[in-house]
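Progress note, sequence design subtask.
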């Protein structure tokens, strides 16, 4: 396992982050996975023994059960691990049961600490932008929690480019702790992140943590028709993750050709691809079984060639929106293509 700095911070995390949304599996989360403590501990041990030191969860996953199970599964390993969790989504019917107000964040952090069985959280992330609470209130509260030692680093998830830069600017003005990472959807079949957010993260020194790298299972290569079986993860995420299905099949065909030539699995290709992309620190994976986890971890053991990356870049290129295409045409001579235009 290789390790990378988390953005511009001094903390190192494994290239693979084990996301444990599947732990617990209660209520609406059951389709994502339903590992109990014993099953979860086996998976955590496998990941840990192979060098994974980075684990990601959220308070909302299975209404807190994911955090509880992760905390118990990491007993005896805590000082050698980096725990990331999130807050912001609704946890109870109370009028203040969701959002990113000072009250909500402080209460959510205390609850997560208790469920995880720890006295600090390594990376505390805003789960999504709050269009109601003033951003200054949210960021000031996160800074307070860092000063209190309850959290060590802060990150965000599911932000737009302007929201990210606005947050960083506020922190600059007040000399508050700034985000070190952005956790965002990013995959071979969904590269929209490269148009605005990747350049913003590169410019501001944020590490990118892709979630959904296999697009709910589509990039396993096992779905070869529009008739996806009921009860599968991809079926439960159809409305969440937009997909150009015909383009997706072309990407899968390319992955299958590389898979046959390199004798690696399609999921490994999808994960390896992201690990080679500019700005990515660690890829957040999920696994229901030991076999899935071991295969995903093996994505760190080899590298796609330059030619293979070019082939995958071409078949999966996102459509360029304004003003991205404008700069490609009229300011091409001024672009630093490695830093400003990662779509190429």
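Output:
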């Amino acid at each position: 396992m290789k390790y990378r700095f988390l953005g511009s911070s001094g903390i190192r995390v494994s290239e693979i982050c084990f996301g444990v949304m599947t732990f617990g599996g209660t209520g609406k989360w059951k389709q994502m996975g339903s590992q109990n403590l014993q099953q979860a501990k086996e998976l955590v041990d496998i990941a840990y023994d192979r060098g994974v030191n980075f684990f990601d969860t959220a308070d909302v996953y299975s209404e807190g059960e994911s955090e509880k199970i992760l905390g118990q599964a990491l007993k005896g390993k805590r000082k050698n691990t980096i725990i990331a969790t999130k807050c912001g989504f609704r946890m109870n019917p109370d009028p203040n049961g969701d959002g990113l107000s000072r009250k909500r964040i402080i209460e959510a952090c205390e609850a997560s600490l208790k469920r995880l069985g720890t006295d600090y959280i390594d990376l505390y992330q805003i789960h999504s932008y709050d269009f109601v609470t003033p951003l200054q209130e949210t960021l000031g509260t996160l800074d307070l929690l860092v000063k209190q030692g309850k959290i060590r680093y802060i990150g965000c998830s599911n932000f737009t480019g302007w929201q990210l830069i606005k947050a960083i600017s506020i922190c600059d003005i007040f000399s508050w702790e700034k985000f070190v990472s952005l956790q965002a959807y990013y995959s071979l079949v969904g590269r929209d992140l490269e148009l605005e957010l990747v350049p913003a993260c590169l410019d501001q020194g944020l590490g990118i943590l892709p979630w959904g790298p296999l697009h709910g299972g589509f990039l396993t290569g096992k779905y070869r028709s529009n008739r996806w079986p009921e009860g599968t993860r991809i079926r439960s995420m159809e409305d969440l993750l937009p997909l150009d299905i015909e383009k997706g099949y072309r990407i899968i065909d390319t992955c299958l050709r590389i898979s046959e030539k390199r004798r690696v699995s399609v999921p490994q290709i999808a994960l390896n691809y992201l690990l080679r992309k500019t700005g990515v620190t660690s890829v957040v994976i999920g696994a229901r079984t030991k076999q899935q986890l071991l295969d995903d971890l093996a994505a760190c053991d080899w590298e796609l060639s330059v030619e293979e990356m070019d082939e995958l870049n071409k078949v999966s290129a996102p459509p360029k929106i304004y003003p991205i295409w404008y700069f490609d045409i009229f300011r091409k001579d001024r672009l630093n293509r490695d830093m400003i235009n990662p779509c190429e």
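Residues 245-262 form the longest helix (18 residues). Work on this subtask will continue into the next period as scheduled.
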